[in-house]
Amino acid sequence: MELLAPAGDLQSFYAAVYHGADAVYLGLQTFNARIKADNFSAENIGEIVKFAHLYHVKVYVTINILIKDCEVNDFLDLVRTCVRANVDAFIIQDLGMARLLLANFPHIVLHASTQMGVHNLSGAKFLADFGFKRVVLARETKLADIKLIKQHTNLEIEYFAQGALCVAFSGNCYLSSIKNGNSGNRGKCLQLCRLPYQIYHGSQMVAEGYYLSAKDLCLMKNLKVLADAGVDCLKLEGRLKRAGYVAQVTRSYRQALDNFNPLHVDQEKAKISELFSRGEFNEQAYLYDNFNILNPKISHHQGKKIGKVLATEKFKHIYKITLQLSEAIGQNDALRFVQEKNQFSVGVGNVNDLGHGRVEIFSKQKIPAGCDVFLLKSERKEKVLSDYERHLLVDFYFSAKVGKLAELVANHGNVTVTVVSENLLEPARTAGITAEQVSKQLSKLNDTKFRLHHLECVLDNVFVAVSVLNDLRRKAIEQLESALIEAYNSELPQVVETKQLGKPLLDLPQKNYYIIEKASDLDGVNLKGFAIIIAPNIYKRAYIDDLVGALLRKGIDSQLLYLHLPIVSTEAELELLDEILRQYQFGIVANNYAHLRWVRQYKTIAGLGLNVHNDFTAMTLHQLGCENVIWSLEKQQVTNCGSALVSGYPALMTLCHCPVREVYGSNCGNCRYTEQLIYQDEKHNRYHLRRVKIKHCYFELLSEEKYQANVNVGKVYDLRSIACNNMK
Predict the structure, then answer these.
(1) Who contacts 536 (Cβ-Cβ below 8 Å, separation ≥6)?
(2) Which H or E run includes 427?
(3) 479: left (phi over 0), alpha (psi -120 to 50) or beta
(4) What is the DSSP letter of 93?
(5) Domain map of the chain by residue range?
(6) Whole-structure pTM over 0.90, yes or no?
């Protein structure tokens, strides 16, 4: 399997390459989902790609956000710069932009971002037909679905193996956007999921902790399972993490892939944990049922426990803290002190060694005696990791004969270059040059990325100046480096540029819709001019039979009925939905690309789940067969066609784990789900859960604050209510 490492800055990029990545993914300063990282620029991307290709490492550029209409030209300019720099592939979320790139840059290689939410065979088939080469599967993808995708498509499969795990379904988290105006789909997520929450049942608090904070992922023990399922690429998360972390996770997974030993897995996990982990790892992701992904006790880097605080005393204007440690610390390290619920973080300055594991440090904070000491960052260890360099081995073949030009042949792998001296060689007046003298000069490669592996010399009794050897060595290395990069680039698809597509002229109907869960939602509502979108919480034929029957008795035309399809569903669950659709033959609201399998069979509306953010995406979906579009919740300026949600309680998160089980410790045989379960954050924002059930249960997190918008398009009213028990 390909090992794909993150690079949020230059130091992390070098760490990934040197420690064994087969490929690196990175973003430029715009249009990527880690906009807070240092990232790279149009000015240095060319040199970055050259460096990677010299080491035979691929570069994938992330353009994995939703694009505004006003940004399209700048977006194309950025891609054009990367294409000219010979980037290997682009990771993309926006379907309209994918279509635009395929039209503008024939043979461009596109990877579907995990933000596209593809997690089953139907979604993967859609992408394959559209023109994608690889799918970065949603983290929520089941093992059985991975196998189906591999068996029935030619797509490469990329799967997250290590790092931070979003609690919400990929690409469909709007919590940060709706509550704070910072969209995760635009690279600005505020990670509100990492905050502490109080959990209420009605007015009674039943739990408290980080109940939306997922454990970090570590699938090192499951590498064979993933390989056997058909995963082509293991993805490591971490574009916002330090270079030392990137170095360690890349190194650990490189060793595991090259020489897997179950006995070494725990050792490598421990090394990674020291650099960053939120306590216990999630070691199976969503691959199987009955998973547990949360750690309600901690949401930040825990660090390694290394001792206790013995004493704290006033020292001038600060405090002198005496520690008993099992591990040495040094300047610029970072420590956390923990005593029950109290935590203090301190950067280490001067360290006085008192002997026998006792040290003194100094801080402006008064740290209580008895605190446990955790090492968050070791400057020394991370420097060792980030300073490591991997060199390329070169073989030299040197020939020096009287009356001929000196010749130096340099070889690495399958690439060979030859350089010669400017002047013919003359016989030596005394002793000729020796192999030892040649080796001494040709080995001086410390200012290059190469190191001498093998040297062969063919020598007459000939004089060769040291300056000639140095010049030959310099020219040979320069030409070899260029030849290696050229040889790599010659194997890339030859992407060409064509004329840009003009801005599409949309002509979507401005239709009005009501979204309902039960027939009584329509009581007292004016139905004239509205179609009805049924969004049941149970996708079973008997349940929908009753609901449809009640609607028909209200006199609603069956031609005006649409079934709101759930954002998440395994391929087996899609087959159940197919049975329902074949029975009723009403329209559908597609909320995942998998649902476009039915676009030619049933009237189809592109729903909120597809994140339609610009005219190009709307036009693309319309041309695929969608009769209408419901614009993304995050689109600020809606064109005057199509439809948009104007009122209701949309799902701000879709959760694939069972929050009820996490809170109560219950199981499916003893289900304790209730609509009265409420999440409340430190600012007293309150959120309710709505359960959706097919074969599995999925949950939607809804704000108690009603969503309201005023747009000049077709109106969508979500009439589904939430349980509101006001807590004083």
Answers:
(1) 517, 543, 544, 547, 564
(2) strand 426-427
(3) alpha
(4) -
(5) 2-165+214-275, 167-207+650-705, 304-387, 394-490, 512-648+706-718
(6) yes
Which residues of the chain register pLDDT less than 50? 724-728
Sequence-distant (6+) residues with CB within 8 A of 141 are 118, 119, 120, 159, 286
Beta-strand relationship, 304-315 and 318-325: antiparallel
Give the pLDDT of residue 723.
Answer: 62
Assess contact for 373 and 305: CB atoms under 8 A. yes
- Name which of 275, 216, 217, 269 is nearest 241 in CA terms: 275
Pairing of strands 405-412, 415-424: antiparallel
Q: Please list, residue by residue across 265-283, b when 16 or more beta carbons sit within 10 angstroms of its beta carbon and e when fewer do.
A: beebbeebbbbbbbeebbb
Q: Using the 8-state DSSP alphabet, how is residue 237 labeled?
A: -
Could you tell me which residues are beta bridge partners of residue 648?
707
- CA neighbours closer than 13 Å in the CB half-sphere of residue 174: 21
How many residues belong to the chain? 728
Question: What single letter denotes the amino acid at residue 310?
Answer: L
Task: Give which of 447, 438, 449 is closest to 482, Cα–Cα.
Answer: 449
CB distance 210 to 295 below 8 Å: yes
Strands 405-412 and 392-400: antiparallel
- 3-class DSSP state for residue 676? coil
Query: What string of H, E and C letters represents the secondary structure of 162-223?
Result: EECCCCECCCCCCHHHHHHCCCHHHCCCCCHHHCCEEEEECCEEEEEECCCCECCEECHHHH
- Are 589 and 607 in contact by the 8 Å Cβ rule? The answer is yes
Residue 62 CA to residue 411 CA, distance in Å, equals: 34
> 602-614 in b/e burial notation, b at 16+ Cβ within 10 A?
bbbbbbbbbbbbb
Position 674 scores a pLDDT of: 82
- pLDDT tens string 509-565: 999 999 999 999 999 999 999 999 999 999 999 999 999 999 999 999 999 999 999
CA pair distance 570, 560, nearest whole angstrom: 28
In sequence order, the 6+-apart residues with CB closer than 8 A to the CB of 144 are 570, 571, 572
Beta strands in 340-404 (DSSP E): 342-347, 352-355, 358-363, 372-377, 392-400
Fold of 2-165+214-275: TIM Barrel (3.20.20)
Q: DSSP code of 332?
A: T
Q: What's 304-387's CATH class?
A: mainly beta
Fold identical between 2-165+214-275 and 304-387?
no
Q: Among all chains, which residue has been given the structure tokens 């919740």?
A: 633
Query: CA 186 to CA 172: how far, in whole Å?
Result: 12
* C-alpha closest to that of 704 among 639, 652, 664: 652
Look up residue 678 and give its two tokens: 């409420």
DSSP line for 527-577: -TTEEEEE--SB--HHHHHHHHHHHHHTT--GGGEEEE--S---HHHHHHH
